[in-house]
Structures are given as C-alpha cells and as structure tokens.
User: Fold this.
Amino acid sequence: MLTIGQLAAHAGVTVRAVRHYHRLGLLAEPPRDHSGYRRYDARAVVDLIRIRTLAGAGVPLAKVPDLLRASPADFTAAVARIDDRLCAQIRRLEDNRTAIARLAAGDNLALPDSAVAYLAMLRAEGVPEAMVEVERDAWIILAARWPDRLDAWIADKRRSFDDPRMMRLYRLFDLDGLTADNPRLAEIADLLAALSEAHDPAEQPDELAEQALVELLDSFADRYGPLADRLQELLVERGWTGLSNMRRTGR
Assistant:
C-alpha cells in the first residue's frame, strides 16, 4: 500500500495534483489507517495515471469522470467528440496566429489587400508617412463599417490620382513637417479647392457623408491643432469648408 507521496511518484504527478483531483472528486480518497495516513492501492495508481493522461491530452477535467466510467464504445465516441472540439480550438488558434501576423505587418491589420496595395502605392510615390498613416486609419474605420463597399471605394480613390494634382497634394501633405505658418499650406488649400471643383464632393456615396462619420474622420486632424485650423481658414477663403467631407461654404 502506498502513501500519497508514493502514489504521486508512481503516476508522475505532484502530491498537490493528487489532492486537487481528490477535491474535484476525480480520484477516490481511501480511508485512513490506524496511524492516520491514507494508503493507496494499485487501482488508485491506475486511476491516477488515466486521469493524468486524459488531462494531459487536453480533456476538460469535468469530462474525466464520465470517461473513466465509460464502456469502450462510449469512451471511443466521447474521445472523438473531444477531438472534434480540440480541432475547432486549433482552427481558432490558427486564425488568431494569422491575425497576429497581420498585426505585425502593420497595414494588413483589419484591411483588405486592395487597401494595403493602395497604401503601398502612396509610399512608393513619396507620400509622407504621417499622411499614409492617417489614410490607413481612416480606411480601417470604413472597412469595419462597410467591408463589402471598401474595394469599390479604394478603386474610386485610385482613379482620382489620374489627376496629377491629387498626387501633388498628397506629397505636399507632410503632416509632421508642416507648421501653421508654412506658405506651403496655401498651395495645399489651392489644390484642395481646385480638386473639389473638379470632383464635386457632393457626388460621394451617402454613407461617407454621414455626420457622425464625418466628425469621426475629421477628428484625425485634432492631433495637428493649429495646422488643421489654419488650413480650414485658407479653405474658407477659397469658398470651401470641411476636411473629410468638403463642401462649398454657401451650402
């Protein structure tokens, strides 16, 4: 007959684990002998090894008692069900790994390939990184809200660069390097006004004109404070207002 320490050693677990299995009712506690110690027989060793093996295989402890009492056929069926659940968990973990890999890739997080390619195009054309990041974050918001529309909107945005003034505008938008008194802001305002005249913002999809969305996207400019305020003043002088949803001041 074995002490609890000897039992644990035979089964390859700790004494603490044996006591934990006792508390859960997985392993029966034998009566104490005349010295006050519990003594375990060979059956306890076999049961403990089976419990350890099932737990080590990922079987939830709550399922272990049923498996220990099951007939061979029921045991096989139960293990098959557990295996199905484990496979589903593995697939979820693989999806999580994919998401983590996308996170490490930066732009790939929460954006479709069309948006990632568009951002890569901006970088290749020399658009300042701060401007690219603002665009990226705006597309992330739109992708979460309208995932089925994003590819079409990206295609429309790419077509807007057929007008060379659009790329000139983006290259000028060095958000980290501009200050409110930089004369380059006047050219930026001129380009924004001219492009808005050529491509009427009123024709954009209704979803993108929602007030709540406009305010949310405009909030990206808050981090640039005086710079954004000065640009807005220059736009008003040219008859336009707004940032993500530009419109004529008379409207």
User: Anything to note?
Assistant: The chain has a mean pLDDT of 87.
